[in-house]
Amino acid sequence: MQEIWENYMKPVDGNPATVAFNAEVADALPNDALGYVGFLKLRLNTATPEGFVVESEADMVKEIEDRLEMEALRYRVGKYVGRIVTGGEVHFVYYLKFDFEWPDVIAATMGAFTDYTYESGSRLDTEWEVYRKLLFPTDREWQLIQNHHTCDRLKAAGDNLRIRRAIEHRAFFSKHEGRERFVERISTEGFKVQADAPPEEVSPPFGVQFYRMDAPYYYDIDAVTLQIIAWAEAFEGQYDGWETSLVKQ
């Protein structure tokens, strides 16, 4: 099975962080065969002011990452599930069958990179709490990931993301009253309702489709969707994404 990795940003311990995680493993959690979590915390020799990897060091960090994965496969200890870059450090996270060979994996990896300082360790984590709470995104973070995928597809097709156009959104609510109050709220923000969706026989949500003129540029659409999510949740609803037409300059 091909692995699916996603990337996003969030604050970690008060610092900005980039998070990469193996999304493929989420469908089969907890994994009883991998009950230990192991980590390697690598201190960057140079970092950006935000604490991220500088371009001149990126190739070396990737080489360390690849070497660690190779040694983990050689020792057959477990699975690579995520990476966090924050505060001038890179944290590599694995889930392990057993952790007694994890120090050997680290030693075999870092023995070739003596210019770096690092820490490593492992502990029991049968519920995969590190993956669930630290690596896996919240609903809001998932929406930002999906936003950026859509922006990437538009950009690849030649779209000028800075041009305002109608962006259509969807939201669903457990009660008719919640949907009506949500519609009242978004109407004050310039959104226009296109259609209501009646409840389905199997699923009770009351849906609404609405639009506004906005630019689908990465961080602009992030701000819009995060605000809609907050409004929907205030009325016991759930945001269901957006779509728009291709606009070339």
Automatic annotation (TrEMBL):
Chain ranges of the Regulator of ribonuclease activity B domain: 145-244
Matches recorded under Pfam families: DUF695, RraB
InterPro entries per the UniProt record, alphabetical: DUF695 (IPR016097), RraB-like_sf (IPR036701), RraB_dom (IPR009671)
Domain DUF695: 5-135
Top-rank taxon, per record: Bacteria
Protein name: DUF695 domain-containing protein
Originating organism: Sulfurimonas diazotrophicus
